[in-house]
Amino acid sequence: MVMLYGIRNCDTCRKALKWLESAGIEAGFHDFRRDGVPEARVQHWLQTLGAEQVISRRSPTWRKLGDADRARVDTAPVALVQEWPNLIRRPVLEDGGDVVVGFREAEYAERFGGGAA
Question: Do the Cβ atoms of 4 and 17 come closer than 8 Å?
Fold first, then answer.
């Protein structure tokens, strides 16, 4: 089973969940707002993809941060996203050991062999 991490009311997360369901792919969902940001998962994502892929510097939340918080992206990125979960690009899909950030239908179709029905 694949695992999708995000925020339940995020349009992109909903699109990804709907795509997975229509493709017959069983997926769990972890809501950052309701369930928190799992430290071990974020560390894995950062090690696998890097902060540039995981943390959105174009988000409204990023623009609201002060310079001290923005500097934490280099010094304490896990703590930063645990405090500000909206900074994580969504959704984050874990499929085995692979991590994919964002939802692009073509990428999901290639990964899961085909596409949504």
Answer: yes
